[in-house]
Amino acid sequence: MSLLVKPCSFCDRPVAKGSGTMFAKNDGTVLWFCSAKCKKNALVLKRDPRKLKWTKKHVKGGIRKN
Question: Which residue stretches are annotated zinc finger (C4-type) (predicted)?
Answer without folding.
Answer: 8-38
